Amino acid sequence: MTDDGPDVVVLREGVHGVSTTEYAEALRERLPADVNVARARTADEERELVPSARVVTGHRIDESLIADATRMRVFACASAGYDHLPLGALEDAGVAVTNASGVHGPNIAEHVVGVVLQFAREFRRFWRQQERHEWRRGQATELYGSTVTVFGLGAIGQAVVDRLEPFSVDTVGVRYSPEKGGPTDEVVGFDDHRGVDDALARSDYVVLACPLTETTRGIIDAAALTTMEPHAVLVNVGRGPLVETDALVAALQKNAIGGAALDVTDPEPLPPNHPLWDLENAFITPHASGHTPRYYQRLADVLAANWAAVDADELDDLRNRVR
């Protein structure tokens, strides 16, 4: 702890606009008692507090703050994605960057299982029937015995596969390094186009849990949607541009696929007049699958695990270091 100010500063902007108060409290519980944690509530407080801190954490950091942050050794990004950060300025200042990789696994995986069951068991249709006081059976299906392809076998993808296991589904994983294997029954590479097409053609559910890269941008395009079966459901909890939106809208409008559950969209936020809102076979959530009260607790666990390395200035040992 320094007499001049806090050691750790939590910036005011939280993930998805959620207050960082819980995050600061979780850090105080986990870090040594002599580590001073402060939460900036305003832009003025950020400018006042950041120069003293060895660690600054939050969803984003303004480049203007970095020049004055002469003691900062680590910026702990509160989200898994970090491309929105001023990485050049952070690197020039000698600041290491960590992210929130792994924090989203349990919460997003539960969201995926929930929306898959929603489509399988026709919960949305029955909910609408209840609102109309209408007693009419449908033809729900079973998740048991179905085939699920998961794009991305990082923390989120692995958590999805783990939670699907009790349903006795067949799983296919798509990842950059298929030689690493994975928790799925089969693994194919992103560059194995025949293998990916084969997986899409026999999948009942396709889950996108991969990062957005030049390889994955638009990976679900018109051709991929045509390859999927008419009953198949697409679930996107990765990034909106993984899917070509116009092609998806056309496929849903023609019932060329069974449906789509989208927690991320392109564009995002989804404009109020966008056709996806009005499609009965589309389920839209506002990039909310990753945030639960435990999100900030898991995020605080990452920074707490890194504190010894920060204190010893051994930044190569940082967990989740990305830069």
Query: Biggest sheet, in brief?
Result: 7 strands, parallel
Topology pattern, helix = H, strand = E = EHEHEHEHEHHEHEEHEHEHEEH
Strand content: 5-15%
Strand line-up of the largest beta sheet: 8-7-6-9-10-11-12
Q: What is the mean pLDDT? A: 94
How many domain modules? 2
Low-pLDDT regions:
none
Q: Which architecture of the largest domain does the CATH hierarchy give at level 2?
A: 3-Layer(aba) Sandwich
Q: Which percent range fits the helix content?
A: 25-40%
CATH class of the largest domain: Alpha Beta
Cα gyration radius (Å): 22 Å
So what's the oligomer here?
A: single chain
Identify the CATH homologous superfamily of the largest domain.
NAD(P)-binding Rossmann-like Domain
Instruction: Provide a count of the helices.
Output: 11
At the fold tier of CATH, the topology name of the largest domain is Rossmann fold
Count of DSSP strands: 12
- Shape descriptor reads elongated
How many angstroms does the end-to-end distance come to?
25 Å
Helix/strand-derived category reads: alpha/beta
Domain D-isomer specific 2-hydroxyacid dehydrogenase catalytic: 28-306
InterPro entries: D-isomer_2-hydroxyacid_DH, D-isomer_2_OHA_DH_cat_dom, D-isomer_DH_NAD-bd, NAD(P)-bd_dom_sf
Family: Belongs to the D-isomer specific 2-hydroxyacid dehydrogenase family.
GO molecular function, one term: hydroxypyruvate reductase [NAD(P)H] activity
